[in-house]
Design a protein that fits this description.
This protein is α/β, with parallel strands linked by helices and about 375 residues long. About 30% of the residues lie in helices and about 20% in strands. The structure holds flavin-adenine dinucleotide.
Length: about 375
């Protein structure tokens, strides 16, 4: 049973944590319920023993934002250290920088680097081919994307190609060019802990089975899957899942990576990427006991079998139409429930987007419920 409270937040991922933080900062009563046995949702990380390395349990997370206000606010909660993500892709037995630069494309295509598609792209394949020649696309992008999504690239949506850009600068091999990029000294778990300190969290509490026991006076903020909330009444939204296996190698030398992540587009191996956690550690981490060893995670694409495994929303028309139906249904049914976060919004949010969404929702709730000026710390 949860204590009597004004607001219940379902989910202690970044979105729920930010909403709860803002409500608490505005002196409101709030309780978080969480179905897992840990906070921080998908960006949960922990220390591996015996290496002492921090690793991300549900897949690698690197923070980035263009917002000075957001960056300063987060750094006032926990300190971040600089971290820029670099990725290499295994192509013809060689690890090449991803995404490729214009110079590499020219070299691969022996000067014939014409784009294969010039019209208005209608799908992911066409959008990708407007950025690079077919030869490069067929090695770097098509097999990786189809392995990841389990769907032909020409059936995937255009917007997905917005997640990569061909690099202009050959020397800059960072994946992203955001002004602020880093990792929290205490991990993302530490960031969420800082956000929700003083807020009660009830673990192993699945709202799905305890809806009738969940009382609140003002609002329920729900960051779980929207179709699950409505017991899939109108149908099921499609997600791609990912599972991760982490191994510690005593004979580390042959497993170490030259960059934080390697991508594997080919169908062999079964995993799609591997993560070498040595690259992700804070400058204060000692590598004395680990220099011959390696801590590596492997990410496997999979069809999710439960909502815990929902990783990436499949944003095809069938799903976006269904989402709209759920959103309309939600408007009719539940004025006291607010839906937000990557699962409730069925959106691909990066962490900065989840944080911004949480801040926006908290502001909306407080303005509606109290008609006053609100956030104690940060308008972003
Ligand atoms: C593999 C992978 C890698 C990623 N890497 C990056 C990256 O490098 N950089 C980046 O910026 N973003 C990255 N992201 C995106 C990032 O994970 C999300 O932006 C962020 O986790 C969204 O937070 P959230 O709170 O909306 O959702 P979640 O983190 O999913 O939190 C939702 C929480 O609600 C709980 N919950 C759900 N249903 C219920 C219920 N019925 N009852 C109780 N609790 C419930 C869940 O257990 C969970 O704790 C990545 C995502 C994936 C899948």
């Amino acid at each position: 049973m949860i204590p009597n409270t004004d607001y219940v937040v379902v989910g202690s991922g970044l979105t729920g944590a930010v909403v709860a933080h803002c409500l608490r900062a505005a002196n409101r009563e709030v309780v978080i319920i969480e179905k897992r046995d840990h906070i921080a949702g998908l960006c949960y990380d922990k220390i591996h023993k015996p290496s002492g390395y921090r690793y991300h349990v549900h897949g690698p997370h690197a923070f980035r934002t263009q917002s000075t206000v957001m960056w300063n606010w987060l750094n006032s909660l926990v300190k971040f250290y600089p971290f820029k993500l670099r990725i290499k892709t295994l192509i013809d037995e060689e690890f090449l920088v991803w995404p490729p630069s214009r110079a590499i494309i020219k070299e691969m295509c022996e000067g014939q680097a014409n784009f294969t598609f010039t019209g208005i792209p209608a799908n992911f394949e066409e959008a990708s081919l407007s950025k690079m020649p077919y030869k490069v696309y067929s090695k770097f992008v098509k097999p990786y994307t189809e392995k990841q999504w389990g769907i032909p690239a020409n059936k995937l949506w255009v917007g997905l190609s917005g997640r990569f850009q061909v690099r202009d600068d050959d020397a800059d091999i960072n994946l992203f060019s955001h002004r602020y990029q880093g990792l929290p000294m205490t991990g993302f778990t530490g960031l969420v802990e800082a956000l929700i300190k003083d807020i009660p969290v009830i673990f192993n509490y699945d709202f799905k089975y305890k809806e009738n026991q969940t009382c609140f006076n003002k609002k329920l903020v729900y960051t779980g899957a929207i179709d699950e909330f409505f017991e899939y009444k109108l149908g099921q939204l499609g997600y791609r899942g990912m599972s991760h296996e982490t191994k510690y190698y005593e004979d580390g030398a042959k497993h170490k990576h030259t960059v934080p992540i390697y991508n594997f587009p080919s169908s062999n191996p079964k995993y799609i990427r591997s993560i070498d956690w040595e690259h992700w550690q804070s400058p204060e981490t000692s590598h004395e006991n680990t220099k011959d060893k390696a801590l590596i995670s492997y990410g496997f694409p999979k069809k999710p079998t439960s909502s815990d495994e929902f990783a990436y929303p499949i944003l095809i028309k069938k799903n976006t139409d269904l989402l709209e139906k759920y959103q309309n249904y939600a408007k009719e049914k539940n004025s006291s429930v607010v839906f937000c976060g990557r699962l409730a919004d069925f959106r691909y949010y990066d962490m900065n987007h989840a944080i911004a969404r949480g801040l926006g929702i908290a502001q909306e709730i407080l303005q509606k419920d109290y008609k006053g000026p609100v956030l104690a710390d940060g308008k972003i």
